[in-house]
Write a structure and sequence with these properties.
- The structure is a single chain.
- The chain has 147 residues and is an alpha+beta fold.
- The chain has a single domain, classed as Cytidine Deaminase, domain 2 (3-Layer(aba) Sandwich).
- It contains four helices and five strands, in the order H-E-E-H-E-H-E-E-H.
- The longest helix has 14 residues.
- Bound molecules: tetrahydrodeoxyuridine.
- The site of tetrahydrodeoxyuridine has 13 residues, from strand 1 and helix 2.
């Protein structure tokens, strides 16, 4: 595992401790690395209405944006697992989160690395966003950034 991957997976695991996931009992943490080395985290945030639940990646990226840093994302780590289990299988971002990560990727002009891990263990799957969301539609299609 690279140092960058390890840093983000560990930060995502810390964040997952604060997951609000009483319905799924599945805790997810995300950690976003910015260009200056800052790491911004998020955890999934569920709701009694179920459908209004927010994923960890979305929470983390919205926080990055609230700090005025949405164009400065360089990598993201995601972990997840069932609460009370020592799950080791890497969790990769859901489809909606891939689209939201793509917003940051295109704005920043970077095919972001996405490190995926389980709640525990050394199994890490590393992807480029373009592998997770090929032929993405995004801000470049709307002329917001150059291709
Ligand atoms: N979840 C995330 O936080 N990120 C993902 O990419 C996949 C799913 C959350 C949503 C819900 O709170 C729980 O995991 C089970 O789906």
């Amino acid at each position: 595992m690279t140092d960058q991957a390890r840093t983000l997976i560990e930060a995502a695991r810390d964040a997952a401790k604060n997951a609000y996931a009483p319905y799924s009992n599945f805790a997810v943490g995300a950690a976003v690395l910015l260009g200056d080395g800052t790491v911004v985290t998020g955890a999934n945030f569920e709701n009694a209405s179920y459908g209004l639940s927010l994923c960890a990646e979305t929470v983390a990226l919205a926080t990055v944006n609230a700090q005025g840093r949405f164009r400065d994302v360089v990598a993201i780590g995601v972990i997840g697992g069932r609460i009370g289990h020592a799950d080791t299988a890497p969790v990769s971002p859901c489809g909606r989160c891939r689209q939201i990560i793509n917003e940051a990727a295109q704005l920043g002009g970077c095919d972001l690395p996405v490190y995926c891990g389980g709640a525990t263990g050394d199994r890490i799957a590393t992807y480029k966003l373009s592998e997770l969301l090929p032929h993405a539609f995004g801000p470049a299609d709307l002329g917001l950034v150059d291709r």
